[in-house]
Amino acid sequence: MHSTPGTVRSMTGTGDAERRAAVPEVALTEPVPSNEPILRGGWRSRPRTTDVLVAASYTVPALVAAVAFHVGATDGGQGFMLPVLAVLGSGTALLIRRRTPIFSLAATAGIMLATFAVPASFAAMATAMALYAVAVYRSVRGAVLGLLGTGGILLLAAVLLPGSTVDLGQAGQAIVLLVIAALAGLNVRTRRGYVAALVDRADRLMREREHLASIAAAAERNAIAREMHDIVSHGLAVMISLAHGSAEIAPTDPARAVQAMRQVAETGRVAVADMRRMLGVLNEGDKGESAGAVAPAPGVGDVQALVELFRSTGLPVVLQSAGVPPADPGIQLVIYRVIQEGLTNALKYARGATEITVGMQFSAEAIMVSVTDDGQPGGVPAERAGHGIVGMRERVALYGGTVQAGPLAGGGWSVTAGFPPQKRAPWKR
After folding, report:
1. In Å, how far from its chain's centre is CA 319?
2. Which residues contact 45 (CB under 8 A, 6 or more apart)?
3. Residue 118, C-beta contacts closer than 8 angstroms, at least 6 positions apart
4. Measured distance CA(326)–CA(307) in Å, rounded
């Protein structure tokens, strides 16, 4: 038995194909809506405080300007109540601009129309701030409709209404201010949507990376489990057979019994060494060593020694080989494991077998590997189609091949693995 840490090297090398084949479609969450502000820190994490500050940034300067203008006016400051009330009403409407932007825009626009001719009312500025909120927190359609509606009402009031307090030039200036506010709001909305998309994409990529990492870990565990199965199952089957034969011939041929028990001990030592090397490869990342890279993985050249080992147990094995084996060590390892599993099953279950044939045919058209026995057809245990056969199918499938295992019509059991032709230098992984 020649399984070495190099086996694990080859196994983990082909694990990439397993991962790609086993990766299911990753379920992703719904993206963050573009109209939702991304609260990462600073003032955005305290929206109520931000609303108060925004409303205050309009209300306080507007109140100061209104009071200062009317106190110095010729009427002695008697007419400043209307602009003060207009400023306070607009500031109150701006407090709810985030929760109900449409209502905030309607309130500030109404106050603007009512106090447009009042000096120092600054109502157009409050309306622009409300329209900005509609563009950011509501929708693009809402911002466009709000701009058209407010601007249209101003123009109609300036042009059509007789005796209107709305001056056409001032209405034009207010509309320009509203257009600037709407464009600024739409720009901020677009930028926030872009940032939200980036955050959502980063979140999905992180989840996908974690998902792929878990799949890769599961694939590695399955690959290691297959290697351990091959080592332990093969070693124990040979040791049990040798021990049983030694017990049978001990009374009549003690020398052969001693030789068989020595073979049992040697097989056990090799199996333990293989498992220790494999565990060493798994732990080499912690120590920074590369103990598993010393010995190569078993291949077609080791099949003869494998056959001799099974012959030593009394199994009548015949090896037939034709053609030149492929140079890829990965597919050579798969061929070796298929033959090893087939011979192990034959050793366990091929009762009364007179010939067990191991066939290897290498050609440009295909590669065929088979293990056939002529054991008794009755009472074949279900274990023949157990984990060993499943492991063989998984190994062979990595190279696009198939495995057929089952009883023969005339008695016995056959395991056949077929591989497609090698198109180019490396086999498909």
Report:
1. 46
2. 39
3. 82, 83, 86
4. 20
- pLDDT in 10s for each residue of the chain, 429 residues: 334 333 333 333 444 444 344 444 434 444 444 444 444 555 566 778 888 888 888 888 888 877 777 665 555 455 667 778 888 888 888 888 888 888 888 888 888 877 776 665 678 888 888 888 888 888 888 888 988 888 888 887 777 665 555 677 777 888 888 899 889 889 988 898 898 899 989 889 888 888 888 887 777 677 666 677 666 767 777 777 777 777 877 788 788 777 778 777 877 777 777 777 666 655 554 454 444 444 567 888 889 988 888 888 788 899 999 989 988 888 888 898 899 888 888 888 887 888 899 999 998 888 999 999 988 754 444 444 456 777 788 888 888 889 988 888 878 888 999 998 755 444 333
CA angle, corner 95, sides to 92 and 97, nearest 5?
A: 115
In the chain, the amino acid numbered 365 is E
Coil, strand or helix at 358: strand
Q: How crowded is residue 284: how many other Cβ atoms within 10 Å of its Cβ?
A: 15
What are the structural domains of the chain? 42-205 (no CATH), 299-429 (3.30.565.10)
Question: Is residue 290 a contact partner of residue 327, using CB atoms and an 8 Å limit?
Answer: no
CA dihedral 302, 305, 306, 307 (to 10 degrees): 120
Helix (H, G, I), strand (E, B) or coil at 419: strand
